[in-house]
Amino acid sequence: MTRMQEIVLLLLCIIVLLLCKKAGRAVAVVLLFLLMTLGDQLLVSRLSGVAQYAVLLICHVLRFLLPLAVSFYLVTKTVTVGAYISAFTAMRLPGVVVIPMAVMFRFVPTMTEEWQAVSQALRLRGLGATGINSILHPMRLLEYLLVPFLLQCSEVVDEMSAAVMARGFDKDRPRTNYLELKLGVLDGVLILASLAVTVWNLAF
């Protein structure tokens, strides 16, 4: 991927962020991209050996992952599960596809909240992931974090599956949605722009 392709792809992500009224996130993405670019241009030429390769690798990997991180944020944070379900239903997807996708889109942010809750509970008991605890008791810290987190994951998945089925998604019958989604002109422009950027990146 060339530098111009990186800029165009990131610009498309920033435009979508601005349309979703996430100006703060858009500014943070721009600043992070500029920081990685300046580090690539200024620091790499002044370093040598292992330090040069390390900085070069970090800058390139972060710049490569930045559009993916923005896309993940847009998918999980800016659209509700109800909107996804309404869109999938309008696309006439079967329930065996809608249910797993609905659970998946809600699962990721819920797991983030559960991880933060477990970490906060450990910190209140003096067992947080501090530098000293990580060095002196790494396995015990890992056990204290993972065991309650995995138990919460299991409970959350069961609750989500039950909630989805309680709403009738396991029945192969026509369903109504209070949220009606329609493709507009702006949606078409963004879809065409995304396809053009994808073809450009794959072809060149």
How does this structure look, described?
The protein has 204 residues and is mostly helical. The chain folds into two domains: 1-78; 82-167, no CATH class. Helices cover 80% and strands 0% of the residues. It is built from eight helices and no strands. The chain has helices at residues 3-19, 23-46, 49-77, 81-90, 95-124, 131-136, 138-166, 185-203. α1 runs antiparallel to α2, α1 (3-19) packs parallel to α3 (49-77) and α2 runs antiparallel to α3. The relative contact order is 0.10. The model has no long low-confidence stretch (mean pLDDT 79).
Write the layout of secondary structure elements.
Elements lengths: L2 H17 L3 H24 L2 H29 L3 H10 L4 H30 L6 H6 L1 H29 L18 H19 L1
Helix pairs in contact: 1-2, 1-3, 1-8, 2-3, 4-5, 5-7
Quick summary:
The protein has 8 helices and no strands. The relative contact order is 0.10.
- Unreliable stretches, pLDDT < 50, 5 or more residues? none
**Global Rg:** 22 Å
Q: Tell me the structural class.
A: mainly alpha
What is the H-and-E element order? HHHHHHHH
Biggest sheet record = none
Mean pLDDT figure: 79
Sheet-strand content, in percent, reads under 5%
Q: If helices are DSSP runs of H or I spanning 4 or more residues, what is the number of helices?
A: 8
Number of extended strands: 0
Termini separation comes to 8 Å
Helix content: over 70%
